[in-house]
Amino acid sequence: MEEKQTTNRLDMESVGKSFLRYLIPSIVGMLLMAVNIVADGIMVGNKLGPIALAGVGIAGPVFTIFVAMSLWIGIGAATRYSAMMGAKRPDQARIIFSHAIASIFVLTIIIGLTAFIFRTELAYLLGANVDTFEYTSGYLNVMLLFGFVFTVENTFSILVRNDGGPNTAMIALISTSVVNIILNYVFLFILDFGVEGAAFATILGGLVGLVILSTHFFRKKSNLRLVRFKFDKKLTLLILAVGFPSFLAEVGISVFTISHNLTFKYLAGTVGVSAFTILNYVHSVMLLLFLGMGAAIQPLISYYSGAKDEQKIKQTIRLAIATSLAAGIFFMLIGQFAATQIVSLFGDFPEEVLALAVSGIKLFFIAYLFMGTNFVMMTYYQSIGHIRMATWITAAREMIVLLILLMIMPRLFGLTGVWLAIPTSEFIVLVTIYYYHRKWHS
After folding, report:
1. I need a surface site. Which of 46, 101, 128, 303 has the fewest CB within 10 A?
2. Per the UniProt record, which residue ranges are transmembrane (predicted)?
């Protein structure tokens, strides 16, 4: 039976080989997704200008919340799914899969329609003003009504990866990105649909990804099946508990975006918000690559945890930290030497916006030295059931420690303090991980 083949592959394969088999498709897929996000920004910036770009940036947190919900249920379910496969219980794994897909669909519909009713108030709450409201509102309307396509696709992708289909998940991500980029060009430059066109391109890209992921059902090695199930409160709570750090990580991105938008609006007006929006597009790329590393090790650690193989878990973590550290050094150097070229990609901006964005990238990119390790350790603790520590890492990085620093550092160092808040936050969190890990193993 193909369940055994899938199981045996992780049982028999070396950790290094398994790590690469999951890492490469995950990174390639995320890289394409990152290119996709940057292409959105470049096209909106070049076609509609900096105010439209800022408007879409302000609406971004709603998209992030939808991604957060899909990760909450997707990673929570996938962690349990892989543990069940490691424990040789494929029937229970199928119930978990079915539960997850039904839950995310219903949840997104309810939240999207509720938010749509209050869409005007929501736009202003997120930071829109008279200049940006039209763009923020246009993007929001599409996302709130059709966001369920994206959330179901993302949840499905995570579970396909955990079912031994990292390549299928990668192909779906690549297709989603390519379709989005093509449709963005068509809707913005040819049909002149404005920011609504950019939002529809994202949704239709997700729909294509969903169709491709569905082909996994027909693979011989697939254990995924939609089966009939009764709503299980205990299973639902377990999925939500395990997936909560992933949800929080994404919500943290929204908190990060909103808090920085409001701080820059207060300190430097629309110029500050425009400069931060450019940096945030670039940051999204780096963030996705680190998320790709987490996505690569989560199926492995969950599986080895279910199979009770401590040695393989340790080897996986060592490889992941070494990889993320090398990537972090590389990204930081890119920030120091290519900041001007990166900013110029996003269109012809006033000199003050350019200068602020370039200095911001040089300071902000220091964070990547610590961020990768923080991501890896969060995934590790989440996958082995240390949910409190995983939750602390995500809550501290972009919420608790960050918000405290944003209250203190701009008063001491002005705009430089805002840019340095995230690098400082990441470093502080890394120190707490070190002490926790040392204490736990002592």
Report:
1. 46
2. 20-39, 51-75, 96-118, 138-159, 171-191, 197-218, 238-258, 278-304, 316-334, 354-377, 389-409, 415-436
Q: Match 């990537």 to its residue by tokens.
A: 327
- Paired tokens of 430: 């890394």
Number of domains in the chain: 1
Element (H, E) at 185: helix 166-185
At residue 296, the 3 state secondary structure works out as helix
Contact assessment for residue 289 and residue 30, using Cβ atoms and an 8 Å cutoff: yes
Tokens of 27: 């990174």
Q: How many C-alpha atoms does 257 have within 13 Å on its Cβ side?
A: 31
Eight-class DSSP state of 216: G
pLDDT in tens, 3-27: 444 445 777 888 899 899 888 888 8
Rounded to the nearest angstrom, the gap between the alpha carbon of residue 87 and the centroid of all alpha carbons in its chain is 29
Residue with tokens 């219980």: 89
- 32, 34, 36, 41 alpha-carbon torsion, rounded to 10°: -160
Tell me which DSSP letter residue 397 carries.
Answer: I
Expressed as residue numbers, the domain containing 7 is 2-441
pLDDT of residue 91: 86
CA distances from 16 to 24, 291, 317 (A): 12, 19, 11
Torsion of CA 97, 102, 108, 110, to 10 degrees: -150
Task: Round to whole Å and give the CA distance between 147 and 153.
Answer: 10
Instruction: Confirm if 370 and 382 have CB atoms less than 8 A apart.
Output: no
How do residues 319-369 score in pLDDT, each as one tens digit? 999 999 999 999 999 999 988 888 888 777 788 888 898 999 999 999 999
Summarised one tens digit per residue, pLDDT across range 64-103 is 788 888 888 998 999 888 888 888 888 888 899 998 999 9
Specify the 3-state DSSP secondary structure of 225.
Answer: coil
